[in-house]
Amino acid sequence: MKKLNILTTGGTIDKIYYDDKSDYQIGEPEIGRILEAMNVAFDWEIRALMRKDSLNMSEADRDLVRQAVMTSTDGHYLITHGTDTMVETAATLGDVGDRVIVLTGALNPARFIDSDAVFNIGCAVGAVQALPPGVWIVMNGRIWDPKTVRKNRSENRFEAI
Asked: What class, spelled out in words, does domain 3-160 have in CATH?
């Protein structure tokens, strides 16, 4: 992997809460801060495509993600994404040729002390370097084929279908 191309779309991983009534905004991508703090030994570049909760993403937004991947010559992509519609975006990416694409996110904002963000990003970084070409989801310590996974909202985790 020469360089990891990171695309961000928003989602819980980047949420900033302002009060107890769940007033939030999607902030700057947290992944850059996390990678710097971990002193990673690879080159990376972040491109913030949007700052949306994934429930508010449209088909045009998903097409923008696909276009960002398909118009680039890079081979490795890590996409941070909201967990509610991550599977739908993975489906929109479809056939990506020789590219390796890993989508990940967090069930709690990266700024929260008990967030799963650092763990998921670490797993995703390892996965994107080791997996064969295709589109993958990395959540809850597992690598998932997007065609065989769903988010279980009541259990707040991803599971096989």
From this structure: alpha beta
Residue 151's φ and ψ, nearest 5 degrees, are -90, 125
Start-to-end Cα distance in the chain: 31
CA angle at residue 54 from 53 to 56, to 5 degrees? Answer: 75
Residue 155 has what pLDDT?
A: 94
Domains of the chain, residue spans:
3-160
Any idea which residue has 């084929």 for tokens? 145
Give the mean pLDDT per block of 10 residues along the chain (161 residues): 94 82 79 95 96 96 98 96 97 96 96 94 98 98 97 95 95
* Contact present, 128 and 102 (Cβ < 8 Å): yes
pTM: 0.94
Closest among 138, 108, 122 to 34, alpha carbons compared:
122
CA distance 22 to 71: 37
